[in-house]
Design goal:
It contains four helices and seven strands, in the order αβββββααββα. It is an alpha+beta fold and 143 residues long. It has a seven-stranded mixed β-barrel. β1 and β2 form a beta hairpin. The protein starts with a helix and ends with a helix.
Length: 143
């Protein structure tokens, strides 16, 4: 049963750099934004925010929402690929460096859908550039 649960709540994502990430959702499959349909059409225009927590810096959270409806989100946890995490460690896990890494490595994530849908075999999740710039500006204002 546990292996089936892992499969049901997991997705494979590919970064533009070729790095692979495994996204783990805590939401039930039918409530997951990657499986949600709006009028017979699966949501295709997705945006995301990426957060990390100091107690587990190698596990980040991807908050995904439809570009037109930010009220419904799905959170995914994922391990930062080792190569990218090593690069961030070179900057002593600096918050500004994390923002640059988010923009440079996670600007677009291709997520392979679990549903057998030949018309849409994957979803594209774009980092919310407006959110990223707002966070960057808040960081500058605090310094």
């Amino acid at each position: 049963m546990l292996a089936n649960d892992v499969f049901e709540y997991s997705y494979v994502g590919l970064l533009e750099t070729g790095d692979m990430v495994f996204l783990f959702s805590n939401s039930r499959t039918e409530n997951n934004i990657l499986n949600r349909e709006y009028g017979h059409q699966i949501v295709s225009s997705l945006k995301a925010e990426i957060h990390w927590f100091s107690n587990r810096p190698n596990v980040w959270k991807l908050t995904v929402y439809s570009e037109g409806n930010r009220d419904q989100t799905t959170d995914f946890d994922f391990y930062v690929p080792k190569r990218i995490f090593s690069r961030w460690k070179e900057f002593n896990l600096d918050k500004s460096a994390a923002l640059d890494i988010k923009q440079n490595f996670f600007s677009k994530i291709f997520v392979f859908n679990q549903r057998n849908n030949p018309e849409m075999p994957f979803s594209i999740i774009n980092i919310d550039i407006e959110w990223l710039e707002r966070v960057r500006q808040e960081k500058l204002n605090q310094e």
